[in-house]
């Protein structure tokens, strides 16, 4: 009798919790979850992908990249006009566009926002010394005067860091950050901001196509399991995958194949590679670098670590930015690797010491290292002695330029959508001695490798446009692939999953989801 | 009595006078450890690909190019003026961040201890009541098991079972994403009551339930065992026997003599547990995405936000030292056997 009473009480309590306590979301607002917090919504300050995602919904840019990677005017009226001497870019702006505070968007507002970013922007180095000054000859005409011809400036104009903000609202913040508010021209207005959640309302005065939903609730969870669990238990509508673990990505991928979820995939823009320190032996030897490159089984790594969800890569420029799909880096071939190592005096009782450093706080990096270690043990154990070490990512980034690691695995995503955004950070150099870089990006990336030919090609590309420029950049990649200062491993993309009651998430060419296109649909 | 109060006052003053010394040692240790730890805050803020000019400008702005001694004296001077500086990653005053993150941790800690007491005490009483029987052994096993379960594992299991499989509790957070939370003191339960918002109160408890019950469950073992052991010892003491001989009823002996004395060590345990929980239950806050001070510390460490780490550690040290002091004085006041 007592047991029955106990069981009945438990069922009553359970039902009460199920039907009365659970808060219900009855609106057409969509809950989007991602990992971590949003520290700031100031376009001059944001650096994380999640903040970029939010800002892209709250603000517009002069141009956007469509899903094919092509430049499309947004706040600009038409494509940028380059002067004959290529030192000026003229941009005509759309009219009748208003900021969220009701003030009008014009060339002065655009100039204010770009100047502000160039003064205080955390990522202002992406503009480097490209822009000299900006003029506003008429209310809706912007003229960007360049220090020297730069063809990458067009791609930079798609950067959400350069989204216009209302000069009147930001007048007290012209030289400092405003983290918890945002007044731009975008499809959504920021209704409420905290580091953990942000509420976005549709901008009823938006100049373009209005959002298809009643608003977005953006929430951050601290770990991958919480995000995965929240989607599985339908507590969230859409999940962005910027830090979800591979095993859970795979599970979600399978669920989408079984039509339990919808999966949206961004263009592949994140490359993972091994950087080889070329300024000291053994990796100063090209043959040894080539041998290591030929001993990396990318297909096995992709299969074992990412369940084939990340594609093996033999380039450093993502295919989306190129017209051909030609692979430049050598294929996996342990037999040829052995021949090369024998030429260098290894394999006959002498082993090459291959210390491989990975970021200990990135689970997939450790798995990549383990797969490489096992594969080398299986095929080249008499030639290579591999020793893997994990260090925390911040430590690795600090020490790369000091030449602490003979080899290191890490990844890179271009800060703007252009091949140059991958080539310059890895290959450019300010001071070259022989083939060694003494100062420049190549030092910061840990390879210390440089080539005068590459520097000349970079300079030449700056003054060229179109296919000629692209071919120049691809030539740079080809030269790098012959010298192998880096070994690309795989390329990955952002993914997002939505419940079946929500439309499929669609990414643009910069890997950003169009939140305004998310809508409630019948399952 | 007045002489006792004077003694207590002296005792309290001696204890209080040691606080600055303790805080100086803690703050100096924090300063040294953060400087010897690998990693550069400039890299953490700008990323490894920022050019050297931008890095140098930021380094100068943050005072990282100053000599260590200059940095140290400036740091101690700021602490003395309760100025913890600006967060390196957000440029928000550290004190603001701490004051924003502290209420969630205190709320979580308070309700977790309440849950621990509500679960642990009846278990302790039950064990004592059924001394030597099957129930007693089950209760003992329960106490040891809950104490032994790693908190992060318990939290993950509870989240998986109750939030994912049964879907009766939220995965994380303090408040429903689609509602605006009342903002008065930062303590959501209190704010909901102050703003007369029953729905907000219900939602706050709904989000508090899983983390607090789980943490309470894991902490209950300590309360269960402490009560069981102390009450057993007290009930076997001479003064209880004397009271029995004087014909005092069992109920009065229990309530007026045994229980107060058995609870004294538990006051100490509660104080220390509360102090450590006010400093944040790190893995709980991470698992349940609970926006408390421990989660903020965890993020600050990963971002190499020196000033924020320093601020949080020193602030929580102050809190723990103050709570310890309070517990010491309270015990000294409550326990007439204690000499000071």
Structural summary, described in words:
The complex is a heterodimer of chains A (523) and B (340). With 523 residues, chain A is of the alpha+beta class. Helices cover 31% and strands 21% of the residues of chain A. Chain A has helices at 2-21, 49-58, 107-120, 153-156, 224-232, 246-257, 286-294, 298-306, 334-343, 363-380, 393-400, 420-427, 441-444, 452-462, 466-483; strands at 30-35, 63-65, 71-73, 81-82, 88-92, 131-138, 141-146, 188-193, 197-202, 216-221, 238-240, 261-265, 270-276, 311-312, 352-359, 384-391, 407-413, 431-433, 436-439, 486-492, 495-499. In chain A, helix 14 runs antiparallel to helix 15. The two termini of chain A are 45 Å apart. The model of chain A has no long low-confidence stretch (mean pLDDT 87). Chain B is an all-alpha fold and 340 residues long. Chain B is built from 14 helices and no strands. In chain B, helix 9 (198-235) packs across helix 11 (250-278) and helix 10 runs antiparallel to helix 11. Chain B is globular and about 85 Å long. The interface between A and B is large, with 59 and 49 residues.
Q: What does the main sheet of chain A amount to? A: 7 strands, mixed
Structural shape of chain B: globular
State the order of secondary-structure elements of chain B, H for helix, E for strand: HHHHHHHHHHHHHH
How much helical structure, as a percent, in the residues of chain A? 25-40%
Unreliable sequence segments of chain B: none
Q: List low-pLDDT spans of chain A.
A: none
Record field, number of beta strands of chain A:
21
Q: What quaternary form is this?
A: heterodimer
Rg of chain A: 25 Å
Strand order of the largest sheet of chain A: 8-9-10-1-11-21-12
Q: Output the structural class of chain B.
A: mainly alpha
The helical percent of chain B reads: over 70%
- How confident is the prediction overall: mean pLDDT of chain B? 83
Number of strands of chain B: 0
């Amino acid at each position: 009798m007592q047991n029955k009473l106990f069981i009945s009480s438990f069922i009553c309590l359970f039902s009460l919790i199920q039907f009365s306590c659970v808060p219900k979301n009855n609106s057409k607002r969509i809950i989007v979850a991602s990992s971590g917090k949003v520290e700031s919504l100031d376009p001059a300050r944001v650096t994380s992908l999640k903040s970029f995602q939010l800002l892209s919904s709250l603000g517009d840019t002069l141009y956007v990249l469509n899903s094919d990677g092509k430049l499309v005017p947004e706040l600009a009226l038409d494509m940028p006009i380059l002067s004959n001497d290529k030192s000026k870019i003229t941009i005509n702006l759309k009219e009748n566009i208003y900021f969220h505070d009701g003030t009008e968007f014009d060339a002065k507002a655009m100039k204010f926002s770009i100047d502000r970013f160039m003064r205080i922007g955390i990522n202002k180095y992406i503009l480097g010394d490209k822009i000299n000054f900006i003029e506003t000859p008429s209310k809706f005409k912007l003229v960007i005067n360049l220090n020297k011809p730069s063809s990458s400036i067009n791609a930079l104009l798609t950067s959400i860091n350069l989204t216009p903000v209302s000069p009147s609202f930001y007048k007290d913040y012209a030289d400092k950050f405003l983290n918890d508010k945002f007044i731009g021209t975008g499809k959504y207005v920021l209704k409420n901001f905290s580091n953990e959640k942000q509420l976005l309302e549709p901008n009823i005065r938006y100049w373009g196509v209005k959002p298809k939903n009643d608003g977005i609730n953006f929430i951050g969870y601290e770990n991958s399991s919480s995000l995965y669990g929240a989607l599985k238990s339908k507590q969230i509508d859409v999940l962005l995958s910027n830090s979800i673990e591979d095993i859970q990505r795979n599970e979600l991928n399978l669920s989408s194949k079984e039509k339990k979820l919808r999966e949206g995939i961004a263009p592949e823009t994140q490359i993972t590679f091994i950087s080889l320190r070329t300024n000291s032996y053994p990796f100063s030897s090209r043959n040894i670098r080539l041998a290591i490159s030929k001993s990396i089984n990318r297909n096995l790594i992709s299969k074992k670590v990412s369940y084939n969800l990340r594609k093996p890569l033999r380039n450093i420029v993502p295919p989306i930015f190129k017209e051909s799909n030609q692979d430049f880096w050598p294929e996996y071939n342990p037999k040829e690797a052995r021949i090369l190592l024998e030429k260098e005096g290894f394999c006959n009782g002498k082993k090459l010491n291959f210390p491989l450093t990975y970021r200990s706080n990135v689970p997939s990096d450790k798995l990549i290292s383990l797969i490489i270690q096992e594969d080398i043990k299986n095929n080249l154990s008499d030639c290579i002695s591999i020793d893997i070490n994990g260090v925390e990512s911040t430590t690795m980034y600090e020490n790369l330029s000091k030449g602490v690691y003979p080899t290191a695995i890490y990844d890179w995503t271009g800060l703007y959508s252009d091949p140059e955004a991958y080539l310059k950070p890895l290959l450019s150099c300010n001071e070259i001695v022989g083939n060694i870089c003494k100062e420049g990006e190549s030092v910061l990336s840990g390879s210390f490798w440089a080539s005068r030919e590459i520097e000349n090609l970079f300079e030449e590309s700056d003054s060229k446009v179109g296919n000629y420029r692209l071919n120049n950049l691809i030539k740079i990649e080809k030269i790098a692939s012959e010298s192998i200062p880096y070994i690309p491993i795989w390329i990955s993309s952002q993914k997002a999953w939505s419940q079946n009651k929500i439309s499929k998430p669609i990414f643009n060419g910069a890997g950003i989801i169009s939140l305004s296109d998310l809508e409630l649909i019948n399952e | 009595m007045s002489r006792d109060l004077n003694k207590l006052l002296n005792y309290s003053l001696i204890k209080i006078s040691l606080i600055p010394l303790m805080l100086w040692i803690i703050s100096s240790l924090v300063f040294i450890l953060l400087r010897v730890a690998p990693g550069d805050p400039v890299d953490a803020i700008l990323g490894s690909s920022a050019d050297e000019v931008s890095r140098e400008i930021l380094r100068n702005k943050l005072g990282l190019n100053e000599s260590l001694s200059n940095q140290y004296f400036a740091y101690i001077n700021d602490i003395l003026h309760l100025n913890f500086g600006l967060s390196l990653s957000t440029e928000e005053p550290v004190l603001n961040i701490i004051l924003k993150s502290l209420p969630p941790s205190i709320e979580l800690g308070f309700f977790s201890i309440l849950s621990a007491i509500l679960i642990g005490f009846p278990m302790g009483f039950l064990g004592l009541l059924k001394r030597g029987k099957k129930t007693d052994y089950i209760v003992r096993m329960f106490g040891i098991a809950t104490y032994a379960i790693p908190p992060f594992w318990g939290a993950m299991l509870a989240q998986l079972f109750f939030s994912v499989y049964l879907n009766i509790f939220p995965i994380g957070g303090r408040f429903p994403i689609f509602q605006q939370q009342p903002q008065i003191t930062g303590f959501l339960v209190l704010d909901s009551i102050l703003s007369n918002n029953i729905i907000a109160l219900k939602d706050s408890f709904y989000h508090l339930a899983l983390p607090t019950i789980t943490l309470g469950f894991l902490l209950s073992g300590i309360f269960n065992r402490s009560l069981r052991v102390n009450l057993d010892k007290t009930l076997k003491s001479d003064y209880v026997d004397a009271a029995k001989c004087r014909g005092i009823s069992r109920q009065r002996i229990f309530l007026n003599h045994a229980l107060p004395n058995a609870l004294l060590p538990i006051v100490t345990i509660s104080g220390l547990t509360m102090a450590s929980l006010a400093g944040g239950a790190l893995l709980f806050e991470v698992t349940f995405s609970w926006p408390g001070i421990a989660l903020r510390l965890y993020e600050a460490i990963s971002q190499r936000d020196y000033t924020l780490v320093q601020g949080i550690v020193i602030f929580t040290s102050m809190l723990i030292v103050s709570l310890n002091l309070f517990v010491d004085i309270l015990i000294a006041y409550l326990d007439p056997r204690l000499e000071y």
